[in-house]
Write a structure and sequence with these properties.
By secondary structure, the protein is an alpha+beta fold. The protein has 2 domains: 117 residues, Alpha-Beta Plaits; 48 residues, SH3 type barrels. Helices cover 22% and strands 37% of the residues. It contains 3 helices and 11 strands; from the N terminus they run βαββββαβαβββββ. Strands 10-9-8-7-11 form a 5-stranded antiparallel sheet, with no helix packed on it. A 4-stranded antiparallel sheet has the order 2-5-1-6, with helices on one face. The longest helix is centred in the middle third of the chain and has 16 residues. It is elongated.
């Protein structure tokens, strides 16, 4: 029987503590072969603070931890796992209560794939502008001028805006936070 992934409720903002407690209790009780891994799904997100772009990790599912479990011969979660959850602080129970439902293979592949992609790729910013939008510059030497968006680069957080300077269309490359919808 292949291993199944289950979702476990934990105290919010204590996911890492709950994961560490589960891993410690798994090791102490010798259940490493029954529970090969415990995971707090994270993703890389780009944030702009103080005008500087930073990569930060955010939890995909705050208040939840994923646990891979090898089921017993009756395709049930072993009783030792139920006791393990009860003994670990900051850990609640399975999503689904007394009859937990495992994640589908597609869901697991997507979640694990997202975690791997986040490690491989730099996260792209979500910029609310698209090509052709009319925007107003709210910062810099072209303050209060309006123009239309020619190009959006979410990887760098830059927006190319065409404005009129001396009645001539002039491209201006700006950070996305320097413009707002007109």
């Amino acid at each position: 029987m292949p291993n199944q992934w289950y979702v476990i409720r934990v105290r919010s903002n204590r996911e890492e503590q709950a994961k560490a407690g589960l891993e410690r209790n798994i090791e102490e009780s010798g259940l490493g072969d029954v529970v090969p891994s415990v995971l707090v799904p994270m993703q890389q997100v780009a944030e702009i603070r103080g005008g500087k772009r930073k990569q930060v990790e955010k939890k995909l599912f705050p208040g939840y931890v994923l646990m891979e479990i090898r089921l017993d011969e009756d395709d049930q979660i072993p009783d030792s796992i139920w006791h393990l959850l009860n003994e670990t602080s900051s850990v609640g129970d399975f999503v689904g209560g007394g009859k937990p439902v495992p994640l589908s293979n597609e869901e697991v592949a997507r979640l694990l794939g997202q975690a791997e992609e986040a490690e491989e790729e730099e996260a792209a910013l979500e910029i609310e502008f698209k090509e052709g939008d009319i925007v107003e510059i709210k910062e810099g030497p072209f303050h209060d001028m309006k123009g239309h968006v020619e190009e959006v680069n979410s990887a760098t957080g830059r927006v190319k805006v065409i404005i009129n300077v001396f009645n001539r269309p002039t491209p201006v490359d700006l950070n996305y936070w320097q413009v707002e919808p007109a």
